[in-house]
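Design review, sub-item: ligand-bound model
Attendees: FS, YL, KQ
YL presented the inputs for the calcium ion complex:
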Amino acid sequence: MQTKGTILIIEDEENIRDFIATSLRAQEFKAVTAKTAKEGITLAASLCPDVILLDLGLPDMDGLEVIKNVRTWSMMPVLVISARSGEKEKVEALDMGADDYITKPFGSSELMARIRTAMRHGAIVAGMGAPSEIFSTGGLQIDFGKRNVRVDGTEVHLTQVEYKIVALLARNAGQVMTYDAIISHVWGPYMDDNNRILRVNMANIRRKLEKNPAEPRYIHTEIGVGYRMVGEEEG
Ligand code: CA
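KQ shared the predicted structure:
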């Protein structure tokens, strides 16, 4: 049977595992499940799934160890599913190489949107699909070739640094980028670990792009973690 892709679910809680597997199968994905980290790593290696959905609180090992293990041999997308609202764990998971996270409880439409984003990103990393040269969501349009940004058809003038930040977030639209990841991309790895300069730039970007910078439509803040540009289909 032709499926939309294979998703490996590593989750010890039966209710959640079943909910996810059922939701995925209803959407014509092949869902494979693992109850422990060890079982998950083995299945990841033998199946090479399109996306791994990973719970962090597993009985035999911390989910972070699974990410660390998988990242030694594969760039396959890892989407963390976590009950932890702790920002530290989310940042750790992202910095260890997770692509994104989704916090429990979540609905199936949110899950499907995240999986689609992760799969698209996975295809780009694998060189199977180039990101489009024009990104657009809502009234925001970014032309990467011309390096210009428009809001509702009007060109917006961004500084070099502001453009770099916006372009990076747009290239990773739908996914959260941590403060550290943005800073090292824009200013290089030796930049002082200081988020203030990023916050100042973000305030300026929002003033230029958003109708109401206090309630941003395009770039959302994930408090304590980073920023997320809304995906093309969400805008
Ligand atoms: Ca768990």
